[in-house]
Amino acid sequence: MDILTLPFMQNALAASLLASIACGIVGTLVVLNRLVFLAGGVAHAAYGGVGLAFYCGLPVLPCTLGFTLGSSVLMSTIARKYKEKADTVIGVLWAAGMAFGIILIDLTPGYNVDLMSFLFGSILTVSSYDLWLMFGLDIFILGATIVAYPGLLSISFDAEYAKSRGLPASLLHTLLVCMAALSIVMIIRVVGLILVIALLTIPPFIAERRARNLAGMMAAAIFWSMFFCIIGLGLAYWFNLTSGASIIAVASVTFFLMVGFEQLRK
Amino acid sequence: MNQPVIDISGLTYAYPASSGITVLDNLNFTVKQGAYIAILGPNGGGKTTLLKCILGLLTPQAGNINVFGRKPSESVRYIGYVPQYATTKDLFPANLLDVVMMGAITSPLLFPFSRNTRKRNEEKAADALQKVGLAGREKEKLCNLSGGQRQRVIVARALMADPKLLLLDEPTANFDPSGKFCFYEFLAELPDDITTIVVSHDISIAASPFTGIAVVNKSLSYHEGNDFTPDFLAHLYGTHDSTCPMGAFMHNVPQILSFKPFTEPVTIPDTED
Fold this sequence. Notes:
Number of strands of chain B: 9
CATH class of chain B: Alpha Beta
Oligomer: heterodimer
CATH topology of chain B: Rossmann fold
Strand order of the largest sheet of chain B: 5-6-7-3-8-9
Largest interface: A-B, 34 and 32 residues
CATH topology of chain A: ABC transporter involved in vitamin B12 uptake, BtuC
Distance between the termini of chain A: 41 Å
Helix content of chain A: over 70%
CATH superfamily of chain A: ABC transporter involved in vitamin B12 uptake, BtuC
Shape of chain B: globular
Order of helices and strands of chain A: HHHHHHHHHHH
Radius of gyration of chain B: 20 Å
CATH superfamily of chain B: P-loop containing nucleotide triphosphate hydrolases
Number of domains of chain A: 1
Largest sheet of chain B: 6 strands, mixed
Shape of chain A: globular
CATH class of chain A: Mainly Alpha
Number of helices of chain B: 8
Largest sheet of chain A: none
Order of helices and strands of chain B: EEEHEEHHHEHEEEHHH
Number of domains of chain B: 1
Structural class of chain A: mainly alpha
Number of strands of chain A: 0
Strand content of chain B: 15-25%
């Protein structure tokens, strides 16, 4: 248990647990509303904001946040208005945002691109400042979800019916996409792009099978996410593996075991 | 004199994505309180579009729609809606009671809900499930139900709103013949103050005592009563030819309409060699 006495491991564990709370809640809504592709697009387009910040010498976090929120609202509006073309347009914005970011970083004098760090994050170098930011994010997401729970439940089950009852379905959809964008920007710096997408999708997918209601599915997704993070971090420490990739490997193996087990039962 | 529940004048609608092709053209229609109307018409005729305009989900390019004397968006609390293909999310984590209670959500925020309200809504949802023949199954998950049973749950959700106007879009798409008959009988028995409009392709709809039939195919023609003669249906779907499968089907309509579900268990006699 000497692993827990190391300050960088304590921070890594705290970061992954805090990321699990945001990803469990937002991921559940993303999966139920079938917005996984959109969330992937937002996560990749975020890199455009990072490039813009470096190139223009702006503070990275606010610049990335603004860029990502803008691109997420754009993608969500297109997805709602032109449903049949949504996947194509999201795909274009996905690639364009990332290419834009890489080109801007190429053009930034004296900065070398560390794409691996962006893809898999650097959870072992998380600072206390990052932890406080993630804690604040969790409070915001938890609060917004509790307050707008009936509306989010209604649009997640049947958006057209929610709209016919006079609920602001478009506004709730935008709120959901903005929560996803916020989570992605805050967590991507810590755990990386790939882990954010894995934590947004795999735990809710597993939780959906047994959950009795929306809140229960969120709680189960948080539990599974924390479980993957703890086991993954332990394996990374003992076998000297990349922590983000290790967490994803644990989640993916569990995912395939679950799917295989379900198929065998049928 | 009763105020019309729905008053439509000069309604014209074209989907923006379809190069401005007009789906509904200068449509006029009035529905009185307590009416029980079937909307029929061929695919692409504009039936669902008309329903969505009445609900305020689509905004027409021209014309006026008044529902209970107001704009559709101001009348939502009086309308119960059963959408087409409503229950596609099989694994959605909700039991039947939760799904039906969604019909009572009128605000996106949690705060208007108190414990008493929730208890009242639970009792009301259980009552709505009983009305659609699913009493005692409140705690079951939606994914354990057949297509027809799920549709009944969605109808129960619409009843949660205490609707004065019930709009149903292809409600019996997943029903077996007996289920269809019982379902339309259930609709016919709803209180007289509820105005009901059913969009359907289903010929067995004719067995239900509609007060009128609206045929929508870009324009709208309204027929009092439920006189589903073979000639009327052949005219409606565009074939008189009894040699083609559709025409032959139309000529068998009187037999179809005389269908009644078995009320007693059917015993098949043993055959002896």
